[in-house]
Write a structure and sequence with these properties.
The chain is of the alpha+beta class. The chain has helices spanning 2-24, 31-57, 80-86, 122-142, and strands at 60-65, 70-74, 94-97, 100-102, 112-117, 147-153, 158-163. Helix 1 crosses helix 4 (122-142).
Length: 167
């Protein structure tokens, strides 16, 4: 718990510093950070548009799990994490909705087939490693002043290529 809070504190402070710096002179931001900001902004815009549509619908969903069980939910409200908690599945890192990777906190939009994926699956490992690489990149940039060139996940784990200048 303390480690999680420490990561949040470090990431929030470093992200705020980098974001403020990015607004001042966007040309000086590393390519990796520019890509992260671009992806974040596009996802936030999409999510905002979907929330407006979902608020108008708010219909009942039928969610079919991989083991054959069905669960009822509400469009725009029910998330894969709430389903995993209600059916007592532990260790889910990411989900697949109708064959498409789906964040655990993202609300479901329509009737669907839901798979909850843990670290024992390739997609679960890739998600955990990619998240770790993003956290590592944020800490390297925000705390140590490194320039991150690439970050991501491979078959063997995570990687974060960076340049740390001697200051």
């Amino acid at each position: 718990m303390a480690v999680t809070q420490l990561f949040r504190l470090v990431i929030c402070r470093s992200t705020a510093r980098v974001t403020l710096h990015a607004h001042r002179s966007y040309s000086q931001v590393s390519p990796v950070l520019s890509e992260r900001l671009r992806v974040f902004e596009s996802l936030r815009e999409k999510q905002g548009n979907k929330k407006r549509v979902e608020a108008a619908e708010n219909k009942t969903l039928i969610i079919r799990l991989a083991d054959g069980r069905t669960v009822k939910g509400t469009a725009g409200v029910t998330t894969p994490v709430s389903v995993s908690q209600s059916v007592r599945v532990k260790g889910a890192l990411v989900s697949k909705v109708n064959g498409e990777l789906w964040e655990l906190g993202r609300p479901l939009e329509a009737d669907c087939d839901l798979q909850l994926l843990g670290f024992d699956t390739l997609e679960g490992r890739q998600t955990a490693w990619r998240t770790g690489a993003c956290i590592l990149g944020g800490v390297l940039e925000g705390v140590f002043g490194a320039e991150v060139y690439r970050e991501g996940a491979s078959e063997l784990g995570l990687y974060c290529d960076h340049l740390l200048e001697n200051k």
